User: Fold these one by one.
Assistant:
Number 1:
Amino acid sequence: MFPWAPALVALLALVAVYLSFPGLFRQRRPQEPPLDKGFIPWLGHTLAFRKNMLEFLKRMRAKHGEVFTLQLGGQYVTYVMDPLSFGSILRESRKKLDFREYAQELVLKVFGYQPTEKNNQMIHTASARYLMGDGLEELNGALLESLSLVLLGPGGSRPDNQGWQEDGLFHFCYNIVFKAGFLSLFGSTKDKEQALLQAEEMFVHFRRFDLLFPRFVYSLLRPQEWLDVNRLQQLFHRMLSVEDKEGVSVWLNYMLQQLREEGRTQAMQDKFNFMMLWASQGNTGPTSFWALLFLLKHPWALQEVRREAKEVLGEPRLEENQCFTFKFSALKQTPVLDSVMEETLRLGATPTLLRVVQEDYTLTMSNGRQYLIRRGDKIALFPYLSVHMDPDIHPEPDRFKYDRFLNPNGSRKVDFYKQGRKIHHYSMPWGFGINICPGRFFALSEMKLFILLMVTYFDLELIDANIAVPPLDPERWGFGTSQPTYDVPFRYRLKPLQ
């Protein structure tokens, strides 16, 4: 044995004792939620939680009820499972429950970006100006050009691209939506062929990072994977510089100008770009996949979406060497597709909403019972389990119902109930309150535009019509839109030119 080995073993033992010290002695105090620390000092329930967060939380809920505190990797997290009790948490001020502290730690670790106090307001201001209203109209125009470039090629439509092509539906949707969004937001070179090559290269690297992302967040990567992540981070920082690019969105230009005025370095601006690429493109492709898959698995729903598209867009006309045409006003006249998207997000979006407790906090449940939560702990909501899959709120929650969010008269349905009480938080894919996703309008517009183009201009079909809808990947619980455990082969072709 090496002479230094005993000393190393002793040091590691001391570190383990030090790290587990809070977990060894913390006890549940009067009026606190049930405390479940698990059997492993410091780690607590981390291993079971990471293996399958959904099933683990189901077991904890069955064991402890609607509120309980877990030890997870040296932290104490209180899960609130009763959606009727969400309101007070979501409305609480930052002085008591703060999301930004956790978010700042995460973006520094994942993207290398050091946010400032002004950044959150800057992003919300930029999103309000340029990702909704008139600003969104302008960005939709750029997005349509990018989708035409990615789907049809630099020369537009041609008779030779009308044959059947096969792909995995998940890969296809993620690839197309990512590249179109990337080119629309971050600009490109003048050479369209070169722009496509750069977008494809970016997607390949992004997808590699995406696969490592869940375990990266939890620091569970193998040594070689840590090296890969570091290499990819540096590569993104270089590739996402917008210097010498054309067509950079006003949304991104506005924020970069604000960072320059703050005195942020070019290197930090490039890291900011990496963060915004992830925020804008990490979920739209996967969500588009689930939406198209559900439509292909439910022909009646696909027929209804196509009928609606024809009503608002008319007969599609695509001539040789031309790009897609689209009336953007149609995006506001698609209640059926809107319901499809809400239902898709209900079934596929699995975010965890976290708040850091800034001072000892009294949590009041819907039944009037109160619990004390300690300063420094976290409060977590997991709407997928407690809202989206609640059969009281959404009957037959495991089924895709394209009209679940439609009233009989075709208007949007917003009246949902639990235990006979109207519930306001019946769908929470974007978060809620002051921390709701600021880019949700552009993200939804991007996905709807892609789906409308696909169902209008293309013939689509599954290779195996009987293939099962793949389960959600358990490794991605808590991280935005979940991804499938396997891809689904399909084929597509451009409809004959007119």
Number 2:
Amino acid sequence: MVLWGLVPGTLLVAMVGCLWLLGLFRQRRPQEPPLDKGFIPWLGHAMAFRKNMFEFLKYMRAKHGDVFTVQLGGQYFTFVMDPLSFGSILKDAQRKLDFVKYAEKLVLKVFGYRSMQGDHRMIHSASTKYLMGDGLEDLNKTMLDSLSLVILGPTGQSLDAGCWREDGLFHFCYNVLFKAGYLSLFGCTKNQEQDLLQAEELFVQFRKFDFLFPRFVYSLLGPWEWLEVARLQRLFHRMLSVNHNLEKNGISNWISYMLQCLREQGTAPAMQDKFNFMMLWASQGNTGPNSFWALLFLLKHPEAMRAVRKEAAQVLGEAKLKARQSFGIEISALHHTPVLDSVMEETLRLGTAPTLLRVVHGDHILKMASGQEYLLRSGDIVALFPYLSVHMDPDIHPEPTAFKYDRFLNPNGSRKVDFYKSGKKIHHYTMPWGSGVSICPGRFLALSEMKLFVLLMVTYFDLELVDPDTPVPPVDPRRWGFGTTQPSREVRFRYRLRPAK
């Protein structure tokens, strides 16, 4: 009887423990931000957040103000929506807000890559050496050759001048940028036809993975989808194997340097394969979608297209493709395109929506620009969503939803960098690449790739929408928070190569 009498008590303790783990008993402590746990234990607001992150955060901001904590799938996230208060989070002089550990868990889950100590510094060191200055110039030249190969074909001109071709604009941009980027970074064999076929197959599989990616990160896949993700991971590990690198020429110094560092650290070849998959994703997952938005905005705004083409003609001269030759552009021209720079910056403002995350190590006081202080609880995650709090702020960017190609130009044609909020000059007036320790190390390469592609398209091709009245499609709500947004539907367009002289 004594034994059976212990059972109810044991069950009660177990139930209380489970409820505590589910977050049911968490209460807001003095000085902590407003706490909104939702009505579902453990899940909290996860479903609404994953359905449409942008609309969810708009609602929570209206309800709670610029700082609030929400429960999402057993984890507590504190969102800070005041950009004037971002500085202390991004600089983190006390080292209480950690980005690296969170990133390591994510890349292990998504790419199968187990990070080693110092990987973050290695990637930034490699990017400084080879994705800036002379290293970037060399890679841009390789990228120009790869774009010529992908668009014009191995013979130099697979397109008939004057003949219109039709495609989906998103597919076209993503396909071309992915294949050219892959060949530029991971090298080619002596058989260009075979290289193009392999790049095309890789792109097809990449898009399958890309489609599943948001729900994969949130662990919302169905049983068959989990199997498909596992198959795709194995396929990329095999196709990007370091053993295949031995068969190729022209592997970028950027990739070679990092693989050499991994070998010196004793990283197994199989783990190097997974590293290659991670770097393929990091380098090619956003340039194509961003280029789609840039060309679509230009096609929907003729005055912007005219301004970019006028600038291109001034910088490049009368650039016409000669028979059986690749595109001829001086890479140095990319440094003299303020109008195109503004177009790209405006495109990134409208089209990129990353989430910046930091794990709180030890209870931490967050001081806001207003002087108010909040206590952040150890183990929680601090989150910034600049798209809503910065890019769409009408105080910083008047008419924030409108595309204004000259928004980032001063009247004298120089780059505009002075933006204000509440009368105060703001440092983080756009944040498409993240910021602080989590800033994208390949941002200079990505931007030059997109600029080069857009320059080629507006200079060497006639472009038009199949339906000029088609509206700019809304963003696929599943892509909020994952870097570059993607359209909820395709946009058909026509293009033709201008006749050679």
Number 3:
Amino acid sequence: MSNPTSTKPDTVIYPITDRVKHSLEVALRSCDELLVQDEFVQKLARSEATKTPLRIKLGLDPTAPDIHLGHTVVLNKLRQLQDLGHTVIFLIGDFTSMIGDPSGRNTTRPPLTREQIEENAKTYYAQASLVLDPERTEIRYNSEWCDPLGARGMIELASRYTVARMMEREDFTQRFRNGVSISVHEFLYPLMQGYDSVALKADLELGGTDQKFNLLVGRELQKEYGQQPQCILTMPLLEGTDGVEKMSKSKGNYIGISEPPDSMFGKLMSISDILMWRYYDLLSFKPVADIKALRADTEAGRNPRDAKVMLAIEVVDRFHGAGAGQKALETFEARFRDGAIPEDMPEVTIAEPEIGVLKALRQAGLVSSGSEAQRNIEQGGVRIDGEKVSDKGLTLGSGTYVLQVGKRKFARVKVG
């Protein structure tokens, strides 16, 4: 290996090897944005030249006890980087959870009590270990350095970031313009998340696209504390089984990674054919070339169900062990041979007093468009609670319904 060159006494430029290029390719796969790419390439090159793993951080607030497939989009990327030999830091935000993060919301997220946080955190790491290699994962809690700060330390930290910069955050700006209150404590959340990067000396931080502002604060605070700023890798937010909203337990469109194999398989089979490719991009470990070839075959006439079955088997096997996906497929097919409605299916809540059947089918993720919904009704392929639907203008009032499209797509829909 050639020796690194330097253009300045304190600036070392390391050689970009094939391994560095491969590592960058792994990092970029399916990501939304990598900031700043040139800096990250040099971090990779430095790591290889000095045999020093990068410190890669992911912070999750234990706001709920269960992890779903939406969370694993980032966890999968973390595992890929871990397999390249880098140090993964799984940070549980037990301190920041008590503040409440308004990211992507126009109101604050209610803070949790210490008891709620501790209860949720018990299962977080155990579930994350289904994706990460626990023997190569550093687990930390941000109360380790946030609690000792005290009032004096908090004020000193706050002095390192301006209100003008804080108001660049989109949701703060919108709320201010709309006259919606912003509590002072909300400014503390991105500050504390950024301080986590200082405490951990992170080289790279991962997060969803809705966390970009908070991750950038970490970069700026590291500069303030005399550290090399971390790079940022954001991953797309995975839509839930409805194909509309991002996956969320509160919206009932999630697939939990600790769900039984049959339930997980059934929910994956219920997603639309269009959404399936999004899931392939963000959840599958298959080579990109293989996914492209499979998609080309499907567009050329192969039954999309084949591709969906392959995806469902892959995901179920990942969380329940080799062979679990095939067994779930056999159970799934047996239910339909018997003509029975499956016990496990996606659950969708529609917060409206009533809704037209066409719109309900779309929001349930059973069809991708209104025209597809009409076509299925005209062909006699739509049932509600087992009864065939022929009226395209049918309105569903408040209540819970089992919607079915064809023989294999089901959703339990709660209206009202």
Number 4:
Amino acid sequence: MATSSVLYNPLPVPQSTKKRSPSIARAPREIVLNPPHTSSSGQAARLAKSLLNLLHLHVEAPPGTEDLRFSRQVSSRDIDEKYSAPTKSPKEVICNKWREIHGSSDWENLLDPLHPGLRREIIKYGEFAQATYDAFDFDSFSEYCGSCRYNKRKLFDELGLNQNGYEVAEYIYAMSHVEIPRWLERSQVADTWSKDSNWIGYVAHSDDEETRRIGRRDILVAWRGTVAPSEWYEDFQRELEPIGNKDGHHARVERGFLSIYTSRSESTRYNKSSASEQAMSEIRKLVNLYRDRGEEVSLTITGHSLGGALALLNAHEASSAIPNLPTSVITFGAPRVGNSAFRDELRGNGVKTLRVVVKQDLVPKMPGLVFNESLDRFDEHITGALEWVYTHVGAELKLDVQSSPFLKHGFNLLGFHMMETYLHLVDGFLSTRSNFRADAKRDVALVNKACDMLVDELRVPHSWHQLAHKGLVCNEHGRWVKPRRDPEDIPSPIGVGHKQNFCC
């Protein structure tokens, strides 16, 4: 994997539902599955077909059934009723069963059928993961390209997430020593807020009202990922590196993921400390604060795609460093991260992991496309300690694009991986033996914000979500210009010495 592709997200999926503050969405690029220097569309098509056959991804409906499928299950009356219904399921009070919903029993008997309270929590954490895309400034004409567009005090207000009951405590920035990121080369602006770092996520905590509902003070860490599956082409198998400080341990993780999580440099402005150090410092501070108040505290870490990989690394470190802290990880479309010893260390530390996976999504099948946890069934004398084999961690909630009558069932590599596709399918999932949930609440139009996954009968334009006038505003002279950020939304507050340190 080229780390430059990982740290800069070329295909974000913003998810604000707040009309007065629209987010940005860029029309998706054509996704190909051939190496970067191969231009033949025939080769790409053959490779895509080979991958589909290898992975058994049946993504097309039987000929002639697409229209029937939609008309039989969704009428115009159904659509009208859905448009007039609230977009969120009612919040269930879970204070008496929070440990079970937080994964104390590895979500046994809660996934199939899916417990309504757990569904609501999964969507909540998924929205927090989506926020890392919504607020990310990917505009190549912006001098703050690669930063968060809002300050931490108003992030959730701007994205319409204030009803979820959390407050942002701190932002996290990341860099990498593996192929130093070149994301700034996309910028058309000579000066920038940082030449080395990207905004990669944030730490938050539940407010008093939400704490009462969920039965404990929840500390949240949300990690940003990439969206385009084509960026994972080189990740079918990458080098594994040791992690941790235990003598003789065999836990290993993917080198690029670990570099993003742990890299720092004194010459940078935002990564004098690593993403790991930033996150752990804030987690420790919040745990100590609320434990000193006599409160019960939990840690929930979430992320989509690459963000899911960083979430596991964060959980491994936090569970090793902070005793008796209930720690859960909820990931969406995440790749494999490490080997079986890494998985076993997470289990031994008490980390509970729930992987939400779409059957047709390619990213969760990598790295380790061929050699993976399925080799565990072979005799250890044949496979050895499996130090070089990638292994998934935790329980799995498996979703299927074909279960939704609202989604197209053709081949759409980008759409399969989109976070909004995941949230739509979670919202509609009842069980593997049931049809799509008739009373699903989430607005289906969100699925098409940055891709083309909804059936045409819904008449929702694809890639419809973008900043008004593509970010230009009309000034007092009647000229269309790029707006200036509010001073409070600039990554470093403007003040004495700002210009001197601007590019450090």
